[in-house]
C-alpha cells in the first residue's frame, strides 16, 4: 500500500509540475475541458473541470506522448478504477472518495483474458 501511495504521489507531482506551457481551456456545456502541456509541447494531461474542480475522465501522458495514467474525478476527488502504466506493469488502483481501496498490479507476462 505504501508503494502505491508513493507511486501515485510521484506520478501526479511529475505531471503537475513539469509543465511550463500555458494550458488550453475550452468551455463544453457546463464543464471546462482542460489540456496541460509538457515543456516540449506534448500533452501532459487532459480532462474536465466543473466549478473549478477536476471532474470526469482524466488522462495523463509522459513527455513522449505515451499514456501513463487514466481515471475519473468526481467533484475534485478520485473515484473508481484508475490505471497507471509504467514499463511492463499496469497498476489498477480502486478509489472511493479520494482514498485508495485496493491496488492490483498486472504484468505483460500475465494473460488477463483469452478469446476463443
TrEMBL record:
This is MORN repeat variant. It comes from Flagellimonas taeanensis. SUPFAM superfamilies: Histone H3 K4-specific methyltransferase SET7/9 N-terminal domain (SSF82185). Keywords: Signal. It comes from the Bacteria. Gene3D superfamilies: Histone H3 K4-specific methyltransferase SET7/9 N-terminal domain (2.20.110.10). Residues 1-18 form the signal peptide.
Amino acid at each position: 500500500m505504501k508503494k502505491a501511495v508513493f507511486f501515485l504521489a510521484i506520478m501526479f507531482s511529475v505531471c503537475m509540475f513539469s509543465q511550463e506551457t500555458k494550458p488550453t481551456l475550452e468551455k463544453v456545456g457546463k464543464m471546462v475541458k482542460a489540456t496541460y502541456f509538457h515543456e516540449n509541447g506534448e500533452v501532459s494531461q487532459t480532462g474536465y473541470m466543473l466549478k473549478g474542480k477536476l471532474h470526469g475522465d482524466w488522462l495523463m501522458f509522459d513527455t513522449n506522448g505515451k499514456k501513463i495514467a487514466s481515471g475519473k474525478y468526481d467533484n475534485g476527488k478520485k473515484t473508481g478504477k484508475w490505471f497507471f502504466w509504467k514499463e511492463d506493469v499496469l497498476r489498477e488502483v480502486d478509489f472511493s472518495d479520494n482514498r485508495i481501496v485496493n491496488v492490483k498490479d498486472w504484468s505483460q507476462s500475465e494473460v488477463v483474458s483469452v478469446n476463443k
